[in-house]
Structures are given as C-alpha cells and as structure tokens.
Amino acid sequence: MCHGGCGVLLHIKNGRLVHIEGDKDSPMNRGALCAKGRATIEMVYHPQRLTRPMKRTGPRGKGEFEPISWEEAFDSIVGKLKRVIKEDGPQGIALAQGTGRHHYLNLIRFVNALGSPNWIEPGAAQCLFPRVNVSLVTYGEFLVSDYYSGTKPACALFWGSNPLVSGPDGKVPFVVRRLIKAIPHTFCIDPRISQTAKHCKHILQLRPGTDMALALAMSQVIIKEALYDKEFVKDWTYGFEEFEEHVKKYSPQWAARITGLKEETIFNIARSYATHKPGIIDWGVSIEQTPNSLQTVRSIAILRALVGNIDKPGADIFGMHILGPTPIFRRRAIRSQEKRLGADTYKLLGGRDAFIPSAHIPTLLETMRTGKPYPIRAFMIFGNNGLATFANPKEYREALMKMDMVVIADFFRTPTVEYADYFLPAAIWPEVNQVVGLPYIAENGVSVQQKVIQVGECKQDEEILAELAGRLGLELGCESIEELIASQLKRTNLTFEELKEKGYYFPPLRFNKYIDHGFKTPSKKIELYSQKLKELGYEPLPSYREPPESPLSTPELAKKYPYILITGRRQKEFFQSEYHQLSSLREKRKHPQTEIHPKAAVKHNIEDGDWIKISSPRGSIYQQAKVTEEIRADVISVEHAWWYPEIKEHGHGVWDCNANILTNNKPPYDPAFGTYQLRGLLCKVEKEKPTTLLKKLTTSAT
Length: 702
Ligand SMILES: Nc1nc2c(c(=O)[nH]1)N[C@H]1C(S)=C(S)[C@@H](COP(=O)(O)OP(=O)(O)OC[C@H]3O[C@@H](n4cnc5c(=O)[nH]c(N)nc54)[C@H](O)[C@@H]3O)O[C@H]1N2
Ligand SMILES: Nc1nc2c(c(=O)[nH]1)N[C@H]1C(S)=C(S)[C@@H](COP(=O)(O)OP(=O)(O)OC[C@H]3O[C@@H](n4cnc5c(=O)[nH]c(N)nc54)[C@H](O)[C@@H]3O)O[C@H]1N2
Ligand SMILES: [Mo]
Description:
Elements: E1 8-13, E2 16-22, H1 35-38, H2 40-44, E3 54-56, E4 65-67, H3 70-88, E5 93-97, H4 104-114, E6 119-120, H5 123-126, H6 129-139, E7 143-145, E8 155-159, H7 163-166, H8 173-182, E9 185-189, H9 195-199, E10 202-204, H10 211-224, H11 230-236, E11 237-238, H12 240-246, H13 252-259, H14 263-275, E12 279-283, H15 293-307, E13 316-318, H16 330-335, H17 347-350, H18 361-370, E14 378-382, H19 386-389, H20 393-402, E15 405-410, E16 422-425, E17 434-438, E18 445-449, H21 461-471, H22 481-488, H23 496-502, E19 504-505, E20 526-527, H24 531-536, H25 555-560, E21 563-567, H26 583-586, E22 593-596, H27 598-603, E23 611-616, E24 619-627, E25 635-638, H28 654-657, E26 681-687, H29 691-701
Parallel strand pairs: 5-6, 5-14, 8-9, 8-12, 9-10, 11-20, 14-15, 15-16, 21-25, 22-24
Antiparallel strand pairs: 1-2, 3-4, 3-16, 7-13, 17-18, 18-19, 21-26, 22-25, 23-24, 23-26
Helix pairs in contact: 4-21, 6-15, 10-13, 10-14, 10-15, 13-14, 18-20
The protein binds ligand MGD (2 copies) and molybdenum atom (MO).
Residues 99, 123, 127, 285 line the site of molybdenum atom.
C-alpha cells in the first residue's frame, strides 16, 4: 500500500481477512510491520469505504451520488469518451494518477493505446523521475543504494531523505535502520533533525534549497585535495577537465555562506565520502521539489562518479531488471508527442528523451481551464488526490469544474472524489494480483502480491483500464492481468503460481555490470559533462542557482515573509493524504502539525500545541504548532496533504490546512522537468485559531 515492499502474511477465514503479520521470510522487513501495515484490516473493511460504482446526482463538487452498476458506469463513460475522441481527438481526454501504485504502468499503457499525450503524475517532475532522468543522462541508468548484498558501506549520506520514516522505493525503514547502526561514517543533510538524522553521526542542517551549493563545494574539495578515484575517473568518466575547471568557483567558503553550514563541516563530509569506501548516497525527494531540480540532482549524482562509488558491493548500484518491462507502447507515446502539453519546453519531462514522457501539470491544468491551445473535456483520475497534493489546488478545482466529464477511481470520499461525475471503487492491496520489482526501477528482486479477498464490487485498476480499452475498441491494452504478469515474469523462468508458492525471488546481485559494454551514455562513460543535456539545450555542467523565492533572491519579500517554508515531511501514520479516516492511526495525529523553533515561537508568542496561521504570498492555512529545537531557527516545516474525512462539506477542510495553498505552481520552473517549488519558499507565522474549521469539527463530532 506504500512504496515499501514489505512481506506480509494474510490470514483469511470464510473469505474475510482476519489477521495480518509480517513475513519473517521477507528479505525486506524480516517479519517487522509498521503501524500502517497493521491498520490494513481496518482500512479494507472501513465503513466509509466506497465499494460500488456511483454517479453524480447534484451539482459537481457537492458530493451527491447514487450507486449504479459497473455495466451502467462503463456504458456511460465509454459513450462520453467516444464522443470526445470523435469531436476533439484523443488529446481531449486527460488522465492523472498519483504516486507509484500497482497500476502505474497500466495507466500509461492505456493512455498510449488511446493516443492521448496528456497524462500527469505528481512525481514526474517533483518526485523520483528527476533522479531517474538525471541518472539516465549521467550514468545511462538509474541506481539504488546497496542495502542488500551483505557488503556494508563504510560511509552513508542521507541527502534530503528520511528513510527511517518514509522508506520509499524498496528501501524499507527496517533495512535502513539495520544498516545505519553498522556504518561508521553517517551524515544526514536536512534542515531538520529528522528520525534518520538522529541515528547519524553528523547532521548538516543546511538552508533549504541550497543542496547544490554543498554538492559543488564537496566536488571542489575532492578534486583539489586529489581524493578522487583517479583510475575510475580516467577510465570511466567524460568531461573531467571541464568539470574540474567549472567547480573552481565553488569553494567551501562560498558554500558556507550560501548554505549556512560551517566551512569545516563541508570539508569533513567531502573528505569522509571520498576516503571511507564503499559509500552510498541515499537521496530523497527534497532535492527535486525545487525549480533547480535538474542541476541539484546532477551535482549530487556527479559525486558518486568522482569517488567511484558506482556498481560496487556496498555502493550505489545499477539494477538487475529481472522483471520484464510492462509494455507501455513507447512508440505511440512519441507519435502523440507534438500535442503533449509542455513537452517541447520541458524535454526531460515530456520529450522523447524523457524516461516516461508525460504532460506538464501547470500547463495541462491551464489548458483544461482555458481550452487553449485545444479543448480538453474529459478527465480521468486513477488514485490521485490532487486537491490535497498539487500546488495551487484552487486552479486544480477550476480545471475540474470546466470538464464535461470527471471519472475518479479511489477508495474513499476524498476532497477530490467529491468532484467526480462517475466514481469507480478500486481494489486495495489484499484484493490485487501483481508482481513487484524491488527496489523500484532497479528490480533486483521480485515479490508477489495475490488477491485473497473481494470487497463489495471493487475492481483492480488494471482490470478497469483493460475493460475500458476493450469497450473503446482500442487495438492495444486489453490484456488480462494474468497475461501481463506472465510476460513480466518471463526473465525469471517462474510462473505466477510458482512465485505465489515462493513469495520472493531475489537472485544474487551482480556488480560492475558496465565493464563489458560501458555505460549507456553517448560517450559510454559517466558524463560529468553531459552531452545529452547540451544537445537538448540545457547546461551540460551544473551551475548554482538560488531558489527563485528565497531570502537571497527576493529580499524585499523576505522582510514580509521572514521564514523559510518546507512542506511535506513524511509521517509514519499517513501515506500522503491517505489513512486520515483510520482511527488507529489518526488517534496519534488529530491535527496537522507545523514545526517551529523555540526562538521563532517566542517572537510570536506561540506555545507548543497552539493553532497558528501560516501565510505565504499565495495564501494562508492553519496548523498546530510543534515547538521543537530539532529544526533550524529560520525554517518552518508544514505537514502536507491534510484533510478531515470527518467534515462532510467545506472541502473536508482541505482549504483550511493544506500546505499546497502556500506552495507555488507558477513559473519559473525547472527548465528540463518543469518542476514547481514545494520546498524552500517564504512564509510568516502568527498565533490564530481556525474558527470555521473548528466549528465544523465540533458540529461533525456531535
Ligand atoms: N506541498 C507538498 N505537496 C506534495 C509533496 C510535498 O512534499 N509537499 N509531495 C509530492 C509527492 S512526492 C507526491 S508522490 C504526491 C502524491 O500525490 P498523490 O498520489 O495524489 O497522493 P495521495 O494522497 O497518496 O493520493 C492518492 C489517492 O489515491 C488513492 N489510492 C491509493 N492507492 C490506490 C489504488 O491502488 N488505486 C486507486 N484507484 N486509488 C488509490 C488514495 O486513496 C488517495 O486518495 O504529492 C506531492 N505533493
Ligand atoms: N509513511 C510515509 N512514507 C512515505 C510517504 C508518506 O507520505 N508517508 N510518501 C512517499 C513518497 S510519495 C515519497 S516521494 C517518499 C519521500 O521520502 P523522503 O525522500 O524521505 O522525503 P521527505 O520525508 O518528504 O523529506 C525528507 C527530509 O528532507 C528534509 N528537507 C526538506 N527540505 C529540504 C531541502 O531543501 N534540502 C534537504 N537536504 N533536505 C530537506 C525534510 O526535513 C525531511 O526530513 O516517501 C514515501 N514514503
Ligand atoms: Mo513522491
């Protein structure tokens, strides 16, 4: 249900799920289970879960629905889609999905089979895909930290990531915790003293959005002090001389001023990473949620190459790709390229060189609202709570209101689901058949997931998409889930039935895989100077840029909004906007919390637990203050994706407490990905109660 990949055993009695436990045989969690996992039974059988298809009966957004049959739902939806295709072409249908779920590639298959270039996903520009695309242009492939081979790294850098809480993409917290304890040199780069930071020997509390300055200065130290791996650099990297020259201007002294770190701290981390080998850099989403996403991620990626921490045991390693790819009909995606919104500008998001081309969220929403350059009339959403998770949810709502048809597949009545014309009840993970490659994208192993229960009329998203493809008469994308799984498993020589018996298949890891054929880049080497970026019109070497809104870029604005805003630190109890209705999890977190340093709190007469108003140039929200020394005194950390399932109307409180009222979906964007700014913005705080919200909460409780 999250990005983890933990093994669990589900106990079934009379067709019902009665008990869940961690699987001791799982190479990921070895029997451990988190609070979210333990809440599975509560979630699956939750009284508020929507288990039948529905259609809207009142005005859009009012959340008035009546149940209908699947037959009626498919008939009506397909009828309307056919009309849009006939009158406006397939680009008139836009699709959205959320963070990587089981149906991720199936949605892309469907979009490409349909011939629409316009699908979006919040992660394509703001999460993971920048790391993937940068890895492609730099090393030719994505890489992951070796948590699994048994060779322990000597040094680990947790860079803008907090895996002890978030455990994303196959590096579950249990594995990370085991490893951190065993590593002598650990560093956490984070403006907050996060869970992960607490376990590390060194914490670098830098100013948000300045990670690139730190990385570039580290490169300078490593080169100047000749600590780099000379043989590896000579044999396997391209553009070293240019890079060496380029980083001469990025001294630790300069970076200390930008980041707020001490000069000696920068020397120390650079020397440590270069000399205690092998080492890993576990990088997180924070380095991507900035309009300097491309070059920030690049500057960190280059560090691995300088010291040769590439594809060796205990370093960062390439994937084995033991799962065959789910065909996404890439050639068709390229055929519809010209109409893809934002693709010509944000070439590593939507262009033919992008990992998986998608549309630019702000450009698509603008087109949905204005009908320019062409009309978009239908919007289909499979697992995305955009009103909580996209920057500028007000524009997102306006876009929803302009549509002729909004179709949403989800589990609960989220703020976004209230805007559906047709609601489709999706299956939750114990109701789903799939094979999971772990870690994501690298696929060094595979884990099975099997459907063991049926709840109401819920269907697995893949099934819904294949059914839609069939009824629309598409040539492609109509295969059953079983057929797709069989093709994915070809390389393993296992059938789905055999994998169900085994549970997991993790063959021994292979290393140094580049030696025979080189790296998959134009030069067959790791490109410190990127020829691909140059060809696409982007800077081939990373140059430092300030975030567009920051105390240095916009000093006048900073007088009015004196704090640096970060949003979205992950919570153990929630997954993005999910699980707010599960009382076992929610009882620990009744309201959203904003972290603020005591020095700042005292200035505004704020005490721990007070309601506060947080404002940015874009709007204001309310959260409760968590006064803590574990954050820089100039930084405010706001929880994201908050809403109240228990408030029936009033947008479920999403307009009162959602961090994305404060974030910015306006340009400037990252030039290659079109990324907007979610972290490192400016804000102010004051003590104030959310009167309307509190009233709604009291009335809904009575
Ligand atoms: N301010 C701020 N905003 C952020 C972030 C941040 O750090 N700060 N983080 C960003 C990031 S990294 C991401 S990835 C996005 C996430 O954005 P979203 O993916 O929109 O986040 P979720 O809240 O998980 O919403 C997913 C919805 O899908 C439903 N769902 C879950 N599983 C399934 C399924 O299998 N099928 C179907 N049909 N529905 C399902 C859930 O019930 C939920 O309503 O948010 C982004 N937004
Ligand atoms: N329990 C749980 N797990 C999750 C999720 C969830 O919502 N709940 N979400 C999933 C998703 S979609 C994702 S993308 C991953 C994300 O997982 P992570 O990559 O671990 O991301 P975050 O926890 O958002 O942020 C990590 C840390 O970055 C710090 N940070 C903020 N701004 C900056 C900055 O400018 N520079 C640096 N260096 N650090 C900064 C924050 O203080 C935070 O402690 O987690 C996934 N796992
Ligand atoms: Mo994400």
